[in-house]
Amino acid sequence: MPYTPIVATLGYVLSPDRSKVLMVHRNARPDDHQLGKYNGLGGKIERDEDVVACMRREIREEAGIECTAMRLRGTISWPGFGKHGEDWLGFVFLIDAFEGEPFQSNAEGELEWVGIARIPELPLWDGDRHFLPLVFDADPRAFHGVMPYENGSMKSWSYSRI
To answer: Which of 142, 147, 111, 112 is nearest to 129 (CA)?
Structure first.
């Protein structure tokens, strides 16, 4: 069966001193299947854009800032992750620099600067605890992982770096 995932970006905006990351606390919509969780910023790639253009657009729409420097940290295949079991493929970025002042909130919830060391204490998707250390580590190589989900729960995690 062909793999036809929803393709998306996920970005983590670093504070100027690189000690914090801008995250959204998904607390705005009661019907949100991510309600209560913290997440990076991002969303679906549109038909006429590349992944970098998508990441810039999503950060602009969700946080009101312009990315001026970013790095692709990895890719993740999430079979079965969607609200109705859809497959997702994500391009994960670290945003090293930006212009502007971030919004206080957006349609998904409140935006919050969170200390990187504090991220594991937050309510996250279980799978985020596996890949987020790779986003913030010093290894310059991108990671490429697969994280199957079933009924809203992560089943496994594997990755490689090149």
So the answer is: 147
Which phi and psi (to 5°) does residue 44 adopt? Answer: -70, 140
Note the pTM of the prediction, 2 decimals.
0.95
The Cα-based distances of 101 to 16, 24, 59, 154, 159 in angstroms read 12, 15, 12, 35, 35
CATH superfamily for 6-161 is Nucleoside Triphosphate Pyrophosphohydrolase (3.90.79.10)
Count of Cβ atoms closer than 10 Å to residue 88 Cβ: 19
Q: Where are the domains of the chain?
A: 6-161
Token pair 């204490």: residue: 121
Tell me if 108 sits within 8 A of 24, measured CB to CB.
yes
Average pLDDT over the chain, rounded to an integer: 95
pLDDT at 32: 78
Residues 106, 76 contacting (CB under 8 angstroms) = no
